[in-house]
Amino acid sequence: MLALTLSVGLLACPLHPVSLDLELGKRALPGLPPDLARQLTKHPQAYRRGAEAAFAYPQAIHVMGPGNSLEEAVLAQCERLVAAIRGQASFETVTAGFGVLAHLVWDLNFPVEASTEAEARAFVAFLQSRAPRIPVVFYSGYESLPFSSRETLWGFILAEASRVSPLRQALSEDFRRVGGPGFWNLLDDRSTAFGVASVSLNRAISQYVALSSWVWHHAGGLVVPFPGDGNRILVWKGELKPREAPLPRLGIR
């Protein structure tokens, strides 16, 4: 059976806890290909196990930097998932692989440098306290990605990774404004930090949906994207559950 997780190292993820991966997975459900979303909801413990396995990966995999190790890990996980589905791995195993992907996508969007541990802890606490008030948003502009080549996917991953730096700077400035990360609870919903939290979470959701859709399409599944022209966002106000496909269910190609 194809391994969808890596062997663990001595140092775990310095950025975010598994609870954020679970939140991402729940919020992403309406945007995922409906057949895929329905399968993932059948194996919640497998998804958690995958996220926990990714959390325990060597520290170097979790951070962006020279060598693009995180970006390469995201690409490699997408390719592993395609191979696993085409190789008829159990969907429990496949679901664990999507849990791994969710954790790596969060790493890619986490707006704090790994070296600033106090800021990382403060941001996680702030995000967890504000998450119920952050709407679920699916960004437009990713509609064609599922049908693109591996080379286009790699370019997409690199481009998305490059967008994090301004958010990191804005968050650090907001922490300094209130006296440091230890005073994160002084930041309200009108703060820059709230905006950073909202954008980071929803970018991660949108990217996870796009990457998962790429996997599903290249594994032979039906992908029914949200309509969009690259200039709009969709604020999801319905239940966080798999959506109904507007086209007949075609199964696996």
From TrEMBL:
Name by which UniProt lists this protein: Phospholipase C/D domain-containing protein
Origin species: Thermoanaerobaculum aquaticum
